[in-house]
Write a structure and sequence with these properties.
The chain is about 50% helix and about 15% strand. It has helices spanning about 20-55, 55-85, 85-95, 100-105, 105-115, 130-135; strands at about 135-140, 145-150, 160-165, 170-175. It is elongated, with a radius of gyration of 30 Å.
């Protein structure tokens, strides 16, 4: 007799019971999917309940979350506007940002344009949710095209600029003065 302790006298290895590996992986993926779906449904229900219980508080919380997300870009844009408020600041802005040279020609033309903008510009106030609600601020962040920043001043004048988020170098800068040809646009 040809038997040994590991094959029970059989010539082949015993057949293992249970499910194949692909079935176990598929079941695991299904369980993860169900858990994710449950979390989404539960989270959506919680958010809807919070919004229904205190709509103003929910709105205030959402706006504060948005404000905290755009604060670095707003602070950078406000710093650039502060630079434009003086001749020396505008000159430094021109020299540090070659991306705006093509649109404005030479330094003298840029400084003349900045001088015309100055009566319509003011230092931007600290960022508040109020800016977002009243449509005075427009900030768009995109990893491919950079940051676009727009702000509508008290008199309706709008300043618009764009920069690369990694280098913070300006690629465009423009101001439309209230009552001027470009001032009829709806967005900043």
């Amino acid at each position: 007799m040809d038997s040994s302790w590991d094959n029970g006298g059989q010539g082949a290895a015993p057949r293992r019971g249970g499910w194949p590996a692909w079935a176990k992986v598929l079941m695991g993926c299904g369980i993860v999917l169900l858990l994710a779906l449950g979390a989404c449904v539960g989270g959506g229900y919680w958010i809807a309940r919070q919004a229904k219980q205190d709509p103003e508080g929910f709105k205030r919380g959402a706006l504060n979350l948005a404000v905290s997300a755009i604060r670095p870009e707003y602070d950078h844009g406000a710093g650039l506007v502060r630079q434009l408020l003086s001749e020396e600041g505008a000159r430094a802005l021109w020299r540090a940002n070659p991306g705006i040279h093509a649109a404005h020609g030479d330094e003298a033309a840029f400084l003349k344009a900045a001088e015309g903008w100055r009566p319509h510009l003011h230092a931007l106030p600290p960022l508040e949710a109020d800016h977002l609600e009243k449509g005075r601020l427009d900030i768009q962040k995109d990893i491919f095209t950079g940051v676009r920043f727009g702000y509508r001043m008290e008199d309706g004048s709008k300043i618009r600029m764009a920069w690369d988020p990694s280098t913070r170098a300006l690629s465009s800068l423009d101001c439309s003065v209230a009552g001027g040809p470009a001032a009829k646009e709806e967005r900043p």
